[in-house]
Amino acid sequence: MRSHILGKIELDRTRLAKDLGYLASVPTVEEEYDEFSNGFWKNIPLWNATGEGEDRLYRDVPGSAIATEHAARVPYLREIVQTVFVGDRLKMARTRNLKNAVVIPHRDFVELDQDVDRYFRTFMVLEDSPQAFHSNEDTVIHMRPGEIWFLDAATVHAAINFSEHSRQSLCIDFAFDGGFDEKEIFADPTVYDPGATPEIVTRKPFTQEHRDRILSLSKVIERQNFRDLLFLLSKVHFTYDVHPGDAYDWLVEIAKKADDEKMVVKAEQIREFAMEARALHDRFSLTSW
User: Fold this and answer.
1) Euclidean distance between CA atoms 143 and 124, whole angstroms
2) Least C-beta-crowded within 10 Å: which of 125, 169, 189, 274?
3) What's the domain range around 260?
């Protein structure tokens, strides 16, 4: 797992509560890449390429990102962004909330033209949900509030919250022109303190019996529940010791066993769209046939 803890800050719960109240009041709208999730998934841009509060799409931007109107309404989070991190490499900052939802396995930055190694994403949970987890390739973790993580979004990753309790977080993207040291993102060098032990989730062994049971879903799959089965399969790796990308391989096999060529094609297409290649502004429908 390349994702790791960069440092930690102590959150001021009183000041944070006011900001969380504002974030909760912002209406939920359709997200960019909404096809990646189900349940409650809300992203609110604080800094982005345009300064527009409804612009939720990450893109390369010359210079620094621009504060949106939402940044002015969350003074504590604005202070964290401006005092903990260096602003000249900041390309986007947003809050993300996930409740009773899963974000399917995917890779980020595949729609951009640059080398993925120049992008650097940090992630910090603001309020804890014990049933919320992230995965990064072969590892599942539970992030604790205040931990500042490097989230290796260029590799296959996913997220889930099995509960209705908010898992509000702060996600900040940086980009560099060439080689860099990860500590360069911090305006406050005392925050950079790598090496903390993460809370890694112990998962159950995955057996041939489990695989056979999954493939038996070919008996119930229909075009009308194709999307539901993808989200179901995307949850398996949070409990069992398998790679998150296996969800797509199972979906393809299930579609083949169901002898529906259109479902086979769609299963292969969503695997490519989520993990291999897509263009900026591309969308994918899991329900149109």
Assistant:
1) 8
2) 189
3) 208-275
